[in-house]
């Protein structure tokens, strides 16, 4: 009996010492030591031997010859003047280049809308005019009728003296009718006419204001528009192309990777490591919700850039470029990615991969990276270094498909709706089972957070485990890509 009691106490202590709540794994738990262990992944515990990790055969990143050679060396002022290419409409916001098309509205669309409103209002005004004229004619007829009644009353009073009683009664009736009609003519009709005239005057005034607005817009349309955040005329296939075309300041530009598609806005970092970087992801203040659906991550969302008083969009906002666009750019040739991050004390670090490719939607945007360098830690290829064995390899991101809370493609028990990384970790990402990096997670002010603060008790912050661990959410993180080319 004492032996059974002692065994029961040991089992109870073993259960109390673990956060793992799988009822079918009780026997495995009893084989573990009762000492506390470090669980850096929230309520997804370290592996205790039950699970078997199957390695992923990740597709190789796009490699080979780059789209660009080394940048040309600096030229003399004389050569620069000879080679300088004049940009049409320089300084404005309208591209005159036929290859780029018109990329900025001039306000003429407002003129078209106003003219359309004018066409809608004019028939109504004409109808009111006809109603007023008809009412005026009716009032004239009533006036004539009243005059005739007055004449008839006078005549009857003169010729019907012999029938005083009958005439008096008939006259009283006529007088009542006369009084009613006269009141309508003298009071009611003029009031209605005044109301209609007031409506007509308001419509006429509105038409005059619209005509003035159209005139003002015509004057404005004679010159290129000036907006509070103009986009430079210089453009290209990507930010590297923009740089080589003369766009050497970091701000918002239009790019067109393929001639068959419409241009779109991006933020180009033209200063870091000699520039040419296309910003595909940015977190800095928690102003944009990254807990989005599959279609949002496919198309892209957020604020590309904004003006802080310098007259151009030189400050990047929080945004995700869009998986379709990221895939298209990275598959056109060798591409490198730079991931920069900052903690709440102002310390900065980075991770860089010389090879970075995102496949298309047919493969659920599989991630492929290689050739790491940096100071933040190689989470994409090696997983979380504070974990060991299978627990670490389950946090490798290379070769993973993209997942969102409405499209589960992770490797954490596929098919089980209660075990989805994107639902628990706050954003769309290349989750494994689940992550060692979570740049699109929930934004926590101040850095450190706890299981109780997390929505599902998991490490759902903006995490880079190999730098700050799971329970520290970064203040800022960004991902930038550019074509890989050998420096001269």
Oligomer: single chain
- Count of strand segments: 13
Number of helices: 12
Could you tell me how far the N terminus lies from the C terminus, measured between alpha carbons in angstroms? 81 Å
Radius of gyration: 39 Å
The overall pLDDT average reads 79
What order do the SSEs take from the amino end to the carboxyl end, as H and E? HHHHHHEEEHEEEEHEEEHHHEEHE
Helical percentage: 25-40%
Biggest β-sheet strands, sense, barrel: 9 strands, antiparallel
Coarse shape:
elongated
Strand percentage: 5-15%
Protein name: Fibrinogen beta chain
GO molecular function: extracellular matrix structural constituent; protein-macromolecule adaptor activity; signaling receptor binding
Keywords: Blood coagulation, Coiled coil, Disulfide bond, Glycoprotein, Hemostasis, Secreted, Signal
Pfam families: Fib_alpha, Fibrinogen_C
Characterise the protein shown here.
By secondary structure, the protein is an alpha+beta fold. It contains 12 helices and 13 strands. The protein has helices at residues 2-16, 26-30, 77-83, 108-159, 164-221, 239-244, 294-299, 323-330, 379-382, 389-393, 421-425, 465-468, and strands at 251-255, 264-269, 277-283, 301-302, 305-306, 315-316, 319-320, 335-342, 348-358, 367-374, 437-438, 463-464, 476-483. Strands 1, 2, 3, 4, 7, 8, 9, 10 and 13 form a 9-stranded antiparallel β-sheet that branches. The chain has a two-stranded antiparallel sheet with strand order 5-6. Helix 4 packs antiparallel against helix 5. It starts with a helix and ends in a 5-residue tail after the last strand. Residues 1-38 and 75-106 have low confidence and may be disordered. It is found in: Secreted. Keywords: Blood coagulation, Coiled coil, Disulfide bond, Glycoprotein, Hemostasis, Secreted, Signal. It comes from Hemibagrus wyckioides.
């Amino acid at each position: 009996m004492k032996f059974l009691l002692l065994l029961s106490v040991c089992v109870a202590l073993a259960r109390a010492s673990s956060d793992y709540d799988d009822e079918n794994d009780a026997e495995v738990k009893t084989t573990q030591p009762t000492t506390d262990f470090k669980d850096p992944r929230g309520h997804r515990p370290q592996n205790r031997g039950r699970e078997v990790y199957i390695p992923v055969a990740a597709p190789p990143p796009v490699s080979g010859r780059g789209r660009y050679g080394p940048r040309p060396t600096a030229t003399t002022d004389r050569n620069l003047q000879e080679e300088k290419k004049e940009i049409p409409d320089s300084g404005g916001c309208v591209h005159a280049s036929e290859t780029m098309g018109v990329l900025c509205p001039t306000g003429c669309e407002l003129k078209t809308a106003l003219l359309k409103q004018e066409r809608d209002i004019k028939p109504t005004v004409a109808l009111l005019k006809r109603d007023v004229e008809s009412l005026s004619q009716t009032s004239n007829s009533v006036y004539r009728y009243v005059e005739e009644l007055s004449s008839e009353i006078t005549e009857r009073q003169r010729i019907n003296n012999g029938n005083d009683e009958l005439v008096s009664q008939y006259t009283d009736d006529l007088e009542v009718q006369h009084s009613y009609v006269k009141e309508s003519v003298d009071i009611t009709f003029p009031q209605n006419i005044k109301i209609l005239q007031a409506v007509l005057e308001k419509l006429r005034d509105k038409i005059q204001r619209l005509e003035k607005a159209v005139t003002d817009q015509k004057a404005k349309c004679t010159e290129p528009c000036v907006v509070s955040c103009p986009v430079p005329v210089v453009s290209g296939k990507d930010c590297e192309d923009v740089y080589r075309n003369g766009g050497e300041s970091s701000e918002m530009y239009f790019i067109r990777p393929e001639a068959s598609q419409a241009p779109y806005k991006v933020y180009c970092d033209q200063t870091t490591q000699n520039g040419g970087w296309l910003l595909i992801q940015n977190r800095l203040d928690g102003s944009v919700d990254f807990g989005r659906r599959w279609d949002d991550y496919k198309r892209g969302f957020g604020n590309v850039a904004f003006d802080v008083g310098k007259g151009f969009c030189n400050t990047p906002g929080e945004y995700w470029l869009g998986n379709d666009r990221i895939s298209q750019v990275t598959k056109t040739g060798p591409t490198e990615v730079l991931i920069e991050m900052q903690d709440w004390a102002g310390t900065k670090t980075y991770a860089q991969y010389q090879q970075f490719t995102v496949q298309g939607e047919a493969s659920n945007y599989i991630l492929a990276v290689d050739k790491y360098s940096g100071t933040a830690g190689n989470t994409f290829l090696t997983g979380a270094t504070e974990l060991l064995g299978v627990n670490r390899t389950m946090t490798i991101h290379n070769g993973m498909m993209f997942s969102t809370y409405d499209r589960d493609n992770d490797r954490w028990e596929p098919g089980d709706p209660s075990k989805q990384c994107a639902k628990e970790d706050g954003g769309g990402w290349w989750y494994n089972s689940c992550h060692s990096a979570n740049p699109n997670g929930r934004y926590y002010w101040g850095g450190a957070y706890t299981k109780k603060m997390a929505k599902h008790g998991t490490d759902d912050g903006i995490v880079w485990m190999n730098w700050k661990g799971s329970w520290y959410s970064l203040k800022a993180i960004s991902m930038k890509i550019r074509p890989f080319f050998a420096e001269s």
